[in-house]
Amino acid sequence: MYQFNYERPKTLADAEALLGKADDPKILAGGQTLIPTLKQRLAMPSDVIDIGGIKDLDFIRAEGDAIMIGAATRHATVAQSADVKKHNPALAALAGGIGDPAVRHMGTIGGSIANNDPAADYPAACLGLDAKIHTTKRLIEADEFFKGMFETALQDGEIIKEVTFPHPEKAAYMKFRNPASRYAMVGVFVSRGPWGVRVAVTGAGQNGVFRVNDMEEALSKNWSPEAVAGIKVPATGLNSDLHGSAEYRAHLVTVMAKRAVAAAG
Amino acid sequence: MSDAASGEGIGQPVRRKEDYRFITGNGHYTDDINRPRQTFAYFLRSPHAHARIKSIDTSAAEAAPGVVAVFTGKHVANDGIGGLICGWTVTSKDGTPMKVGPHPILALDTVRYVGDHVAMVVAETLADARAAAELIEVDYEALPATVSLSSCQDGKAPQVHAEAPRNTCFEWELGNKAETEAAFAKADRVVKLDLKNNRLIPNAMEPRAAIGEFDKGTGIYTLHTTSQNPHVARLVLSAFVGVAPEHKLRVIAPDVGGGFGSKIFIYAEETACVWAAAKVGRPIKWTADRSEAFLSDAHGRDHLSHAELALDKDGRFLGLRVKTIANLGAYLSTFSAAVPTYLYGTLLSGQYDLPAIHVEVDGVYTHTAPVDAYRGAGRPEATYLIERIVETAARETGIDPAEIRRRNYVKTFPHQTPVIMNYDAGDYAASLDAALDAIDYKGFPARKAEAARRGMLRGIGFSSYIEACGLAPSAAVGSLGAGVGLWESAEVRVNPTGNIEVLTGSHSHGQGHETTFAQLVASRLGVPLANVEIVHGDTDKVQFGMGTYGSRSGAVGMSAIAKALDKIEAKAKKIAAHLMEAAVEDIVFENGVFTVQGTDKSLAWAELSLAAYTAHGFPSADIEPGLKEGAFYDPTNFTFPAGCHICEVEIDPDTGIVKIAKFVAVDDFGTVINPMIVEGQVHGGIAQGIGQALLEHGVYDADSGQLVTGSYMDYCMPRADDLPSFTLGFTKTECPSNPLGMKGCGEAGAIASPPAVINAVTDALGIREIEMPATPARIWEAAQAATSRAAAE
């Protein structure tokens, strides 16, 4: 680790003020990506602003036809929340399958989507459930939020406050884990709800999470595993590495989509 | 009390004495130890696989906060410190010795792999050392690297060492070429197979660590380090590297968290710490982080082989010929030349009566980390080759895989193979039969059909393995090029109160010696286990020892203890005879009590121990006071653990995921001291073997020579949920070559299991070959290819 200033503000306003003052700040939420990155000396921020002390960011509320989750809410909390399990069991299951128990008790939803790791699970849930991301500056639709590998629509000094997930009628997430890292090599989130049908894929794409329009159309007409069984996503633009070729990942998108629809019922 | 009655003697599943301190955080690993005025070392490593060092400027680093000193290869060379050595000389078939390039502690003018040691920064804190290392300016001229095993000898690949043209260290052969050619000439069928044995990265739970110290007053150096063999480390550091005279160097290997071979070797970092401690006049600590371990621990395996098996019309094996290219990495490590030769070629007969064998092995240099012994060391490579080609032969001849093995087993002992080894005892069919029963072989077709109904592909694979353990008769290894003898030493010290300290040259780094060795002593002397302390790992305490590797600690280390116990018993009887005024021949020693035969006179162990030290009235000419005996035990032969492992897998053809549905291991380890510990060893070995077969792969980028699998993000270590619940069984033929009848169990699982898994995977897919690790991606691709082949036919 290189040296940096460490701040732990108590309020969002203080956090914003600190962000504004610092030369090259980084926000620390659960630290599951940032801390290893710092330890490996792959980042050299001037200031680390720990938002873990901001109580207002840690909540889960079911209101109307949606669930609101505070940005600093830990994966384990989401996974165990009675409200999430009741209204959005696919989301609870996704949160309960992130990393390992240690990661789930530290990592936060805001940290996950702000980092936008191309193999992270939450981006698939956000995109697959038509989530709204509320920040200190505005509301961003999930479709507009994820911009590419480790890139989001967030601007300098902008902090995620909460993520709103409308209740789906049906939803499920199926993940094929990288055998080594256990990150999603291919994770497919399918849902049906007021927004229609969504199929969001994480892990596979070079530019992070993406939707599969062909599958969404097919499922809109016929919500069944067979409807997507014959739909292949092009291998172009998918990751290829020692764990699997782009063709293999393309194949897995179909398999995981099929299984997700089956699981969603 | 008998062993069973006490519950502590030989054959009893005694809980490990050492576990209390380990699981309560009271172990003393090297990094737990801190010395007064200690400094910290950080090693600057090469970012290039191959580069010339044009210059190194350390001035900014030297001026950085907290820095005590910065050392480069020049400092080491100027001090007359030599390079690291390989302790085994292999001779090529043309009679020339292997071609050895220099292996400096810190690089001089060339770096030869990513992670090669360039400079050492010593500072007040690790953070200071690390920060200063970034200020060292190394002007590299990057050079093309040799990475590929298949092309490194083509004459065009960049040369790793000037001493070794075509990157070839040795071209070794074993067996009889003419007889093998003749066997192939009369064969009815020849089965051919090309195989890769994947590179593995050891990943002991505790990374390597060292604390070097120098006492200016006495001139004595002390090195605390993570070693499997502290005496061998001291010998190499004094006699070859020249750090200090042997009597002025103390090496302590305290609690060590796993080795698997990787801590046998004498490495640059540990050497540099003890050398530099005298330069800076303060203790220096270094602990590898996991990333450094990936880069710089000696890796394992990495073979490319072509094998051919000749059979007659009845499926009997007539001959085997093998050509292997073995990757040695950029430098020869401590035993690396022995692993792909005498620990590999000598086991190619497997469990089979194979009349003719000829094996050629080219040991080659590449711009990758050194490759040396890793759990099994050579024997897994041999077992993988023979058990894969035998399985292939079964499929090509249509003979059941169990039957073709049974038909070819060695059945009478001793059996001289064409490749040096003389098998002393075994019953291979017994292990096979027990394994067939345990897995319910007859029920396999029904299980396969049931799996098919669920859309799953079920396969079964066999591995009838043999290994040579109990390393090793000194005369034998000496004649084959070893620079050391492979005996073991022991000293049994009986204290006046009757409790016992046993000093052993073996080293426990997970094996449970503190328990099993004590069980032997408790059993022999009739004392409670709690009264026996096993002392190891300190050159100041134990006179000399060869350490722990090659499943040798039971067969060799305990045999030395048994020999010392014989002497203790003889002397104790002499004392008992004197005290009870009887003839020595009339003294009976049983369950810790000395009696005079035919009388009611008796003497308890503790009474005798005290008497040995009070020595009142001892006839001074006949009986010396005290009760302490030492012994050196040199084995008369290798030991030959063997057995049969059978694996059943289910493959999801949609994803390529393999699930191990059943895994049966039936092993013959001879005498077992503690079945619980032995089962643990088998479990761990199989886990590593399954890791090699399905998960683990050390990969370097073919062009740049960068380590692609440098962390757990890409290097897949087996996790508990990758593994099934193992079904274990044991058969027993006692080893006739040592007093306890033990064969060794530490490596068997890692040796036996990879071919069983791969045979099962290829059976499930109906294909001939798949490379290890058989990852889901590879399996899916193989299944796709098989499907398109079937469609084309």
Walkthrough of the structure:
The complex is a heterodimer of chains A (265) and B (793). With 265 residues, chain A is of the alpha+beta class. Chain A is 34% helix and 25% strand. Chain A has 2 domains: 5-50, Uridine Diphospho-n-acetylenolpyruvylglucosamine Reductase, domain 2; 58-264, Uridine Diphospho-n-acetylenolpyruvylglucosamine Reductase, domain 3 (2-Layer Sandwich). In chain A, the strands form 4 sheets. Chain A has a 5-stranded antiparallel β-sheet. A 4-stranded antiparallel β-sheet of chain A has the order 11-12-13-14, sandwiched between helices. The longest helix of chain A has 19 residues, at 246-264. The N and C termini of chain A lie far apart (48 Å). The model of chain A has no long low-confidence stretch (mean pLDDT 96). With 793 residues, chain B is α+β, with helices and mostly antiparallel strands. In chain B, the strands form 7 sheets. Chain B has a 7-stranded mixed β-sheet with strand order 3-5-1-12-9-10-11, sandwiched between helices. Chain B is built from 20 helices and 28 strands. In chain B, strand 20, helix 15 and strand 21 (532-535) form a beta-alpha-beta unit. The A-B interface holds A 1-2, 40-41, 176, 179-181, 183, 242-245, 248, 251-252, 255 and B 127, 130-131, 291, 654-656, 695, 697, 699, 708-709, 712-717, 775-777, 780-781.
